Amino acid sequence: MNHNLDFLFLSEADAVKAGAGDIHTCIQVMDEVFDLLGQGDYLMGAPNHNSHGIKIYFPKETPFSGMPVKGPDRRFMALIGYLGGRFHVCGEKWYGSNLANREKGLPRSILTTVLNDPDTGAPLAIMSANALSAARTGAIPAVGAKYFARNQAETVSAIGIGVIGRACLEALMDVLKSIREIRLCDIDEAAAKRYAEELREKYKVSVKVAASVEEAVRGSDVVNVATSGSVSPRIEDEWLKEGALLTLPASADISENLMMDSRIVVDNWEMYEAYAEELRNAKGGFGKNLSGICGFMMDLVWDGKIRKEDITGLGDVAAGKAEGRHDDKEKVIFIMDGMPIEDLAWGYTIYRNALEQGIGKRLNLWGDLT
């Protein structure tokens, strides 16, 4: 080999400096991703081109002292993909998560994104991806709200105000210009009160800290759930008002009736079918092997209680192949599980910004080996 091969390294601080937290731009980029998704100009893992990623399933117990065991939100995943359009990039998101990280002063998730040339496979960039991932995750409910929030929505509720919950709320406020009231609900009431003060100063609207999930949800036009941990917040049928939009970047405990009586929107239906294919030999149904609301939805489809033909893909809406909200009365539940093509799009945007602004460090992968 007689060519130098360099790539750009971006630390977390570099990524932030290059715009990883620019939620307004991120929403626009994610809308573009869903347009490409609807057109079919993308690839994800597996022969079906729609696999979310490969996950290590940790055992409940092991005879090996150094082997990790199953724990709350503990996982390692490799999420790969290709995104076309102006991005034309391959890459991977490497996802490490452990709720016990907080005891060590670390975030629950520690993330890395790699961008590659789709023709040669050469790395273009390796970057820390916590801020990147928070922004792209937060932007997705906002893209959903663009197409499915009730006209002139006045109230938005945030169930869970961690890093992701705050990103979601900031993104929703960016697209919902008619909001007059924000409601917060979190197990850490003191943190919610502090955050409420920040929001009042930033948005100049009424901000209330709800004493319960019910108080946060009842009468709200848009409800976002972004909690972590093993217990999902319960939302009763009657709490969700006519015309409400429920966005679920995390799971919620809701009834079959609410699911069947609402319009179901997903980020990528083919991804859930890929889950079904991957778990076809698993015992106990999809809900036992695919966690949270995604497994619940798949069980309802599998049992014939919801027709897959009645589920709307956000990509089809963004690409103009399907309608958004039909009227101000329908309840809409937007279920999302994240896709590597979202990380690639936002990572590529950050990469291009960094190149233009001289941010990051060029590292040599190899030089002249002759």
From TrEMBL:
It comes from the Bacteria. InterPro entries: NAD(P)-bd_dom_sf, ODC_Mu_crystall, ODC_N. Pfam families: OCD_Mu_crystall. PANTHER family: KETIMINE REDUCTASE MU-CRYSTALLIN. This is Ornithine cyclodeaminase.
